[in-house]
């Protein structure tokens, strides 16, 4: 089972000074920053997913104008000039690169804004190993539409999006074969139910695809994904390998294997590190809550800015409370300060911000268990307690890297154990 990480320009500054209470971010560029695979050995994923929507931004091949790109124009040009392997500094790491369109970015458009030629050209330029056909995401799911009982009509828009996806998949494999391109074509399947996904997969196999990517999975629960896979297994040929595009929940990934799933991509281990209020630090058996010690600078902490504007806290007080929490947590990590003193200092600083009442117990648990000391990943080894501090992008993103590493390690273990327990 290969785990791909969708690239969204997630880099950290290798020169960031964690020991300084206020080290303003320098905003490192792609060439000075470090990717997760450069900090962690082995790399915390098996490959990287490159979405055209992320790299080039919104826009259409018809007029060639793109906007809101994650990549600067100079970065795009360098990527196309040197290829993904060199651009991402993969070195000797066995990373695979997959290209897709990032269909979610144009979900609101009546049709995909990209042409098959444009996408093939993009994959060629990036020198990806696999290229996913152009697709149009279906923004709904209802397994009841498979039954023949009355009461459900498939929305016309869903059918139309599936037809578009299949027409473009046919065009894509013809074009990919005719050009003798270096990438392996992957057929994208979109559906709204197990039956509709199965129809799609059957058609893609007829077109000649040996690898199929199931899209529209982001909002599905693991049980629904399993139901879709069971439906697809009715038509899947033994040699057809499945990829799950954009998984949010990784609790059953090892179980997906018996349905022919050999790869998936997910951004959630990284994003959970800073988008989730509580389950944001992974360990093999459970998740912990990172301890919030906000940066007492209204320029980087919008909550503080609002609080100061509303008269809830002065900057002087914020700096004093922050300093006390900072010293107490670091002192606790160095075994100089008792646990309860550290928890109390953190909560005193959090109180004006209105933190969740359960945070006291959560923070106490995180600090008491000291998971950063037993993790063994290079991020925890380098950062120590800073890895469990919810504070600024440099720490939070590195905690995301740590989460990727734990996910990858646990996935390997579950697969080695046979996958049933996972
Ligand atoms: Zn770690």
Q: What's the CATH topology name of the largest domain? A: TIM Barrel
Quaternary organisation: single chain
Please name the fourth-level CATH homologous superfamily of the largest domain: Queuine tRNA-ribosyltransferase-like
Instruction: State the major sheet.
Output: 8 strands, parallel, barrel
The level of helicity is 40-55%
Structural class: alpha/beta
Percent strand: 5-15%
Bound molecules: zinc ion
Number of strands: 14
Under the CATH scheme, the architecture of the largest domain is: Alpha-Beta Barrel
Question: Strands of the biggest beta sheet: in what spatial order?
Answer: 1-2-5-6-7-8-9-10
Kindly give the count of domains: 2
Show unreliable segments.
none
**Kindly, what is the distance between the CA atoms of the first and last residues, rounded to a whole number of angstroms?**
13 Å
Q: DSSP helix count?
A: 17
Please identify the top-level CATH class of the largest domain: Alpha Beta
Mean pLDDT over the full residue set: 94
**Which of globular, elongated, flat, extended, rod-shaped describes the shape?**
globular
| Radius of gyration, whole Å | 24 Å
């Amino acid at each position: 089972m290969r785990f791909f990480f969708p690239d969204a320009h997630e880099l950290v500054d290798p020169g960031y000074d964690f020991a300084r209470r206020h080290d303003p971010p320098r905003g490192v560029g792609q060439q000075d920053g470090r990717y997760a695979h450069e900090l962690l050995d082995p790399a915390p994923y098996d490959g990287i997913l490159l979405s055209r929507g992320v790299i080039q931004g919104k826009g259409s091949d018809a007029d060639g104008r793109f906007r809101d790109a994650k990549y600067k124009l100079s970065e795009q040009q360098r990527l196309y000039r040197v290829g993904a392997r060199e651009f991402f500094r993969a070195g000797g790491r066995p990373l695979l690169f997959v290209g897709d369109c990032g269909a979610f970015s144009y979900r609101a458009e009546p049709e995909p804004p990209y042409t098959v030629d444009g996408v093939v050209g993009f994959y060629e330029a990036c020198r990806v190993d696999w290229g996913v056909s152009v697709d149009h995401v279906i923004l709904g799911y209802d397994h009841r539409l498979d039954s023949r009982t009355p009461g459900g009509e498939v929305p016309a828009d869903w059918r139309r999006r599936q037809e578009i996806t299949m027409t473009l998949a046919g065009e894509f494999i013809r074009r990919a074969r005719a050009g003798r391109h270096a990438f392996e074509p992957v057929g994208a399947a979109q559906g709204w139910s197990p039956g509709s996904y199965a129809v799609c997969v059957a058609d893609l196999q007829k077109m000649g695809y040996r690898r199929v990517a199931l899209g529209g999975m982001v909002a599905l629960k693991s049980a629904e994904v399993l139901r879709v896979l069971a439906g697809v297994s009715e038509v899947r040929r033994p040699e057809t390998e499945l990829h799950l595009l954009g998984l949010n929940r990784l609790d059953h990934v090892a179980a997906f294997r018996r349905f022919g799933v050999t790869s998936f991509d997910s951004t959630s281990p990284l994003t959970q590190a800073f988008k989730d209020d509580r389950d944001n630090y992974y360990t093999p058996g459970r998740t912990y809550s990172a301890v919030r010690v906000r940066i007492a600078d209204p320029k980087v902490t919008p909550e503080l800015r609002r609080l100061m504007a509303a008269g809830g806290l002065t900057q002087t007080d914020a700096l004093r409370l922050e300093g006390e929490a900072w010293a107490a947590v670091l002192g606790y990590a160095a075994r100089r300060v008792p646990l309860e003193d550290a928890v109390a200092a953190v909560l005193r600083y959090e109180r004006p911000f209105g933190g969740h009442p359960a945070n006291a117990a959560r923070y106490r648990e995180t600090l008491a268990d000291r998971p950063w000391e037993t993790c063994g990943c290079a991020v925890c080894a380098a950062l120590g307690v800073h890895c469990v501090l919810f504070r600024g992008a440099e720490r939070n993103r590195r905690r995301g890297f740590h989460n990727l590493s734990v996910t990858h390690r646990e996935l390997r273990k579950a697969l080695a154990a046979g996958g049933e327990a996972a």
